[in-house]
Amino acid sequence: MLTILFDGVAYGMLLFVLACGLSVTLGLMNFINLAHGSFAMAGGYCTVILVNRLGVPFALGLPLAFLVTAALGGLLERTLYVHVYGRSDLDQVLFTIGLVFMSVAAVDYVMGSSQQFVLIPQALQGQFIVFGVGMSKYRLLIILICGLLTVALQLMIAKTRFGSRLRAAVDDQRVARGLGINVGVVFSVTFAFGSGLAGLGGALGAEILGLDPTFPLKYMIYFLIVVTVGGTSSITGPFLASILLGFADVAGKYYVPKLGAFVIYTIMIAVLIWRPQGLFARSAAR
Fold first, then answer.
1. Which of 157, 2, 149, 158 is closest to 66 using CA atoms?
2. How many whole angstroms separate alpha carbon 191 and alpha carbon 75?
């Protein structure tokens, strides 16, 4: 049970980093970005190229993956996404799902269709034995990095000047512009940062989840479940939802492997029946 709990927490932390960028763009920017998984895939493949092929140290490959995907997200936001912000939900869904299929085809052409993994350093391989429980060194690293990111992200949104400008821009763009806030820049930086977080999650998860061109499609539903169950009003909701779903997924596959992902869908349905707006309703944050 302790091993399942540890693996579930590590998997949940990884899910949160992968999905929190979507929580930011969907919850704070009111934009449905189904192509979020494509940025995670980009970060994973960036790390594969840097570490496996170019020999860049893994510790340097992670921040580089964040920076590359953040730059890519900022570029696409200024050239493509900005034209869809004011459109209907259906238009946003069709636009971003089209980007997903384009990214799948492009990666399949450039990198091939076989599954790839990131080579992690020898120091992160193996386990620590604590009270008879085997704890993977790499999963401990994931818990540490994701935990620090969670705290930093919550503080940034709740306590910093940029966070207050972002919340003001989301609540009322006309008033925000009247107060001198450059809404376009705020949204661009937020989108780029969320894309960078997705890329970092893809880099961290490449060794555990594996990478192939269908990555955005395989894990899109997991990202959406995290945001739906956790709610879109804060970072706390998606974080708790990620931990809950990570543990449920690992425990379900261990105890009832024949049911597969049925366990997390059951939890999603139960939570949404109990709280249709997710664990943390938007109204509670405003």
1. 149
2. 10
**Each residue of 162-185: pLDDT tens digit?**
888 887 877 777 888 888 888 888
Q: Report, in angstroms and rounded to the nearest whole number, the Rg of the chain calculated over CA atoms.
A: 19
Report d(CA 151, CA 1) in Å as an integer: 27
Indicate whether 58 pLDDT > 70.
yes
CA-CA distance, 153 to 225, in Å (whole number)?
20
DSSP element (H, E) containing 14: helix 2-23
Rounded to the nearest angstrom, the gap between the alpha carbon of residue 249 and the centroid of all alpha carbons in its chain is: 17
Q: Please, which residues have CB within 8 angstroms of residue 251's CB and are 6 or more apart in sequence?
A: 4, 8, 263
Residues 147, 82: Cα–Cα separation, whole Å: 31
Q: Where are the alpha helices (DSSP H) in 48-88?
A: 58-79
CA-to-CA dists, residue 158 to 78, 91, 136, 235, 241, angstroms: 26, 31, 33, 10, 20
Q: What is the pTM of this model?
A: 0.87
Pull the structure tokens for residue 30: 């009111």
Could you give the residue ranges of the DSSP H alpha helices within 112-235? 137-159, 161-171, 173-178, 183-209, 215-230
